[in-house]
Design a protein that fits this description.
The chain is 46% helix and 16% strand. Helix 5 packs across helix 6, helix 6 packs parallel to helix 9 and helix 7 crosses helix 9. This is 3-dehydroquinate synthase.
Length: 355
């Protein structure tokens, strides 16, 4: 597949990816190499990745326990200490091999260690391929609040090898698919329509759908790298989705949701809000709701869940001057940013989701 040129870094795919990585290692004089993984990718992906490496550099594997719950500053401190003990310096290279938690956290660690060392992302989940590893956002959660601490700093390259997807469960694949659906809804109606009936998708050609999803995100980020304007479009479904994800993460009586599961709910809710603000038609809303509900399990919300979720909205990173800002769709394939939404309408959207 064709290489995508991002903001000062390339995104390589499949057959060319490892050739480009080894060429990069040969052309740049790094002192040593640190591979950051979690406990899942140590078992599932590292054995596949390491044989591709052609380098005389000293290689150290740095592992942390898998899970969103470990994407925090405490894990960073542990890894910064390990890097220090193992002799990492300003000329070290970090390669992050794993899903979105690994690329978010590993990119943040590299961006802040000794004021920044070079890093490369090798995403191994669908979610990290089409979203987390592209765009330069690196960071960690603050308690149960998603991605509150971080930096925007681009990798030297991103390598997308879709054969890693063979290691994923169906639920993890669906989680990544949510971001692909979002890219269609906010940017490319024709792309969205490819997912209206999953049984009609030729999964032998799924790589091309991944490539298009990455290209969409990249096209948006290139216009607005620091999220002052149009890049906020990528937050469609995430204002409520992140609040739901955080609430389920902190609630002892709730089953933790995968990122994409929460974002799928957020997209339905925010599509309903778009409908009520007369930005989309009833038929467009019904198509969105039915399509997403055909892919994801319905989540039960009790009455006492809703106000704690609303309380979490104040921490959304798009908020300015204490007001909650939404990115809503203006017809399928278009977006309208910086939209204010009253709590009453949000609660109405939850009622419609439950119906």
């Amino acid at each position: 597949m064709q290489t995508i040129t991002a903001n000062n870094y390339p995104i390589y795919f499949n057959e060319s990816a490892y050739e480009q990585l080894n060429l990069f290692l040969k052309e740049n004089k790094y002192s040593n190499l640190f591979i950051i993984v979690d406990s899942n990718t140590t078992d599932s992906c590292l054995p596949k990745f390491l044989p591709y490496l052609e380098t005389d550099l000293t290689i150290e594997i740095v592992e942390f326990e898998a899970g969103e719950i470990n994407k925090n500053i405490e894990t960073c401190i542990e890894i910064w200490n390990v890097l220090t003990e193992l002799g990492a310096d300003r000329k070290s290279l970090v390669i992050n091999v794993g899903g979105g938690v690994v690329t978010d956290l590993g990119g943040f660690i590299a961006s802040t260690f000794k004021r920044g060392v070079d890093f490369i992302h090798i995403p191994t989940t669908l979610l990290s391929m089409v979203d987390a590893s592209v765009g330069g956002k690196n960071g960690v959660d603050l308690g149960n609040l998603k991605n509150q601490i971080g930096v925007i700093n681009v990798p030297k390259m991103v390598l997308i090898d879709t054969t890693y997807l063979e290691t994923l469960s169906q639920s993890e694949m669906r989680s990544g698919l949510a971001e692909m659906l979002k890219h269609g809804l906010i940017y490319d109606k024709e792309y969205w329509e490819k997912f209206l009936d999953l049984t009609s998708i030729d999964f032998a050609d799924f790589d091309s759908l991944i490539h298009r999803s990455v290209a969409i995100k990249n096209e948006i980020v290139m216009q607005d790298p620091t999220e002052k304007g149009i890049r906020k479009a990528l937050n469609f479904g995430h204002t409520l989705g992140h609040a739901i994800e955080s609430y389920f993460l902190e609630s002892k009586d709730k089953t933790t949701l995968l990122h994409g599961e929460a974002i799928a709910i957020g997209m339905i809710l925010e599509s309903y809000i778009s409908l009520k603000k007369e930005l989309i038609s009833t038929s467009e809303y019904q198509q969105i709701k039915q399509t997403i509900n055909s892919i994801y399990d319905k989540i039960v919300f009790e009455e006492n869940d809703l106000h704690p979720i609303l309380d979490l909205l104040i921490h959304d990173k798009k908020n300015e001057y204490g007001t909650i800002q939404f990115a809503l769709i203006e017809g399928i394939g278009k977006i309208k940013i910086n939209q204010l939404v009253e709590n009453e309408l949000i609660l109405e959207a939850f009622e419609d989701y439950k119906s």
